Amino acid sequence: MTELHASTAMPAELDQPIALGVAQVRKTRQGVVAWGDHRVTVGGGAPVRVQAMTNTDTADAIGTAIQVKELALAGSELVRITVNNDEAAKAVPYIREQLDRMGVTVPLIGDFHYNGHRLLSDHPACAEALSKYRINPGNVGRGDKGDRQFGQMVELAAKYDKAIRIGVNWGSLDQDLLARLMDQNAQRARPWEARQVMYEALITSALESAAKAEEIGLNGNNIMLSCKVSNVQDLVAVYQALAQRCDHALHLGLTEAGMGTKGAVASAAALSVLLQQGIGDTIRVSLTPQPGESRTQEVLIALEILQALGLRAFVPSVTACPGCGRTTSTTFQELAKQIDDYLRGSMPQWRERYPGVENLKVAVMGCIVNGPGESKHADLGISLPGTGEAPSAPVYIDGEKAMTLRGDAIAHDFQQIVENYIEKRFGVEA
């Protein structure tokens, strides 16, 4: 029997390094969403922006302002609020006023459906207090009436120099447009599948509406688009096609993603595929809060998605092993959580005091198998003893073993090491 051996020789054509894992870049126009001197750029090489939406009754100005502040402090760079009736529209200027008093400059986006043209016209203070209008082409009216009402909103955006998002959603798609495309599809020699016609309707609605807005006189850079669906594969397909057919900045999100783990995983799956391809300039995770859960959870997941992809850094990262039979003690789990909570809880103060601290990498490992190696790859790392190992924990700083901790105060001692390292590396003197 012939014995086979794997060749160690590499063909010349393969003697090239494996490409680095980095996200692609899509060139887009750059829009600006501003309030006063605070400007948030979207697209055109700007970082992928995180936004969220309140779930308070907008007519409750104080309650809404408080939630907007919470979302902004959690990391949301833009916050959308529902403007659905006269009471909500009247409250918007007061919400803005309350935020300004609290020193919260996050721009507000007004979410309009059905009657946005009237609310913006009847309440000019609302139109001015908002920094961006979300317009759904499927909900502005049908036929000539829809064109007039859409045009009215765009004219007001141009008058007040506001950005807009043309936000198409397959749950509220323009039925006249869909019927037209269905009729066209029936005439094809080989008709498309119904879902493919739906894809085309979403994209056509967004692109035709954007073209109309520019014809009316709105700065094309400040027109952002979205085509939201609730299925991961559908979202990927639609946005890949949309990105090829326009250079507008794109708002990315899986609509009605769901609750808890399902919503978080589905959003991460869909957004990560597209962001890796350079598609998406601002994102929102449309997570249904579980009972008693803070609205800020959707912001935290969005931040984690961007940080996991290496697109942005918001908080120091903590690498920790999952644990196995070698780590029957929960010591490393407790220390990992303690350090992670400590780093996240300290960030509001650290952002100003320690510029760059969000890039810090910490490893908290549970045994000798991967502990020393992972610790050497981090800025700071500790390898705790696994089951049956000597009761000692080597600490690595900038890839070099610096000391070994022992005793009952390992957690406290390591946290002090972290504090000292941050002060030394990121403090004012550094």
Automatic annotation (TrEMBL):
Lineage: superkingdom:
Bacteria
What InterPro entries has UniProt attached to this entry?
Dihydropteroate_synth-like_sf, IspG_bac, IspG_bac-typ, IspG_C, IspG_TIM, NO2/SO3_Rdtase_4Fe4S_sf
Cofactor dependency? [4Fe-4S] cluster
Q: How is the cofactor bound?
A: Binds 1 [4Fe-4S] cluster.
The IspG TIM-barrel domain, residue ranges: 39-299
| Keywords of this entry | 4Fe-4S, Iron, Iron-sulfur, Isoprene biosynthesis, Metal-binding, Oxidoreductase
Catalysed reaction(s) here are:
(2E)-4-hydroxy-3-methylbut-2-enyl diphosphate + oxidized [flavodoxin] + H2O + 2 H(+) = 2-C-methyl-D-erythritol 2,4-cyclic diphosphate + reduced [flavodoxin]
Which molecular function GO terms apply here?
4-hydroxy-3-methylbut-2-en-1-yl diphosphate synthase activity (ferredoxin); 4-hydroxy-3-methylbut-2-enyl-diphosphate synthase activity (flavodoxin)
Pathway the protein acts in: Isoprenoid biosynthesis; isopentenyl diphosphate biosynthesis via DXP pathway; isopentenyl diphosphate from 1-deoxy-D-xylulose 5-phosphate: step 5/6
Enumerate the residues binding [4Fe-4S] cluster.
321, 324, 367, 374
Looking at the record, the residues that make up the IspG C-terminal domain are 318-419
The EC number(s) attached to this protein equal 1.17.7.3
The family classification in the record reads: Belongs to the IspG family.
What is the protein name given in its UniProt record? 4-hydroxy-3-methylbut-2-en-1-yl diphosphate synthase (flavodoxin)
**Organism for this UniProt entry:** Hydrogenophaga palleronii
Organism lineage string = Bacteria, Pseudomonadati, Pseudomonadota, Betaproteobacteria, Burkholderiales
Gene that this sequence comes from = ispG
